[in-house]
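HOLO CASE FILE
Compound: NDP
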Amino acid sequence: MKLINGQKISNKILAGLKRKTEKLKTKPFLAVILIGKNPASNLYVKIKEKRAKEINIGFKKYLLPGKTKQSKIIGLITELNNNPKVTAILVQLPLPRHLDTDKIISTIDPNKDADGLHPKHLNQLKRGQTPSILPATTGAIIEALKSTRINLKNKSVAIVGKSKIVGLPTYYYLKKRVKQINIYNSKTKNLPGKCKRTDILIVAIGQPNFITANYVKKNAIIIDVGINKVSGKTVGDVDFESVKKKAAWVTPVPGGIGPLTVSMLLKNCCLLYSFL
Ligand code: NDP
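Model generated. Tokens follow.
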């Protein structure tokens, strides 16, 4: 088994972006809205801030209490949409339960949609088009697959997890680029049998160490998107120890899709800036 070193690929992408931003007279500027005190979200925003600043992207965090009313968040996004200094906007997900995620994300100006989750971009994907901005996690999954140099065209793919932010956009993106693709969720019957037939297994379910060797075809590529905390340790949705003898390639957690997602987000910020 070989590791897909997401951290290393991410560092390379960030170095490339830095070379580009160094040449700019004005710089891209990312505004991040963080609502509530979710420790994981707080940590992700800190990492995004650190990496953005390292590559000359301006950064400002808007920290709002967990009980903030939806109208106030929409008001803030509208202000940021109209602020010419701000070239990219991100609302850190997941949001507290009383808020309507779709409504909030659709308020972001698509020309400032750093995470690529605005309905304009998601609908383009759904229609089989390639949007100018890809959802950051989908971009990360594609980069991880590219690094293995496999030919996607003759591979079958299974995606486990059907969320709007990871599973579905990745399904729509890959649909016309691979031999065969299926997407599964918690209602799928005989999941191990279905996964075991596929060359590439992408897992984003939020269930620690759920996928074992029993779900894996010999020499498959395993992309583990999951980030879970178990007894203070970060683990993926894939049981790494169980699958490592069977798979050809695996993304580790931490150090796989996580850092790649941050670099794809910042790549999106640079792209949005270049469209101005
Ligand atoms: P959601 O909770 O929004 O969606 C989870 C999906 O997984 C649902 O479709 C659900 O099914 C399905 N699911 C849950 N349990 C099972 C099961 N036992 N068998 C099959 N399907 C199952 O999760 P997200 O997509 O937001 O996140 C998934 C994971 O990815 C989390 O660990 C999260 O932390 C991580 N993540 C990582 C990112 C990164 O950058 N690396 C970015 C975003 C998320 P159903 O539809 O039936 O409910």
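CASE NOTES: The chain has a mean pLDDT of 97. The pocket of NDP is lined by residues 137, 160-163, 165-167, 184-188, 191, 204-207, 210, 225-228, 257-258, 261 (CB under 6 Å).
CLOSED: yes
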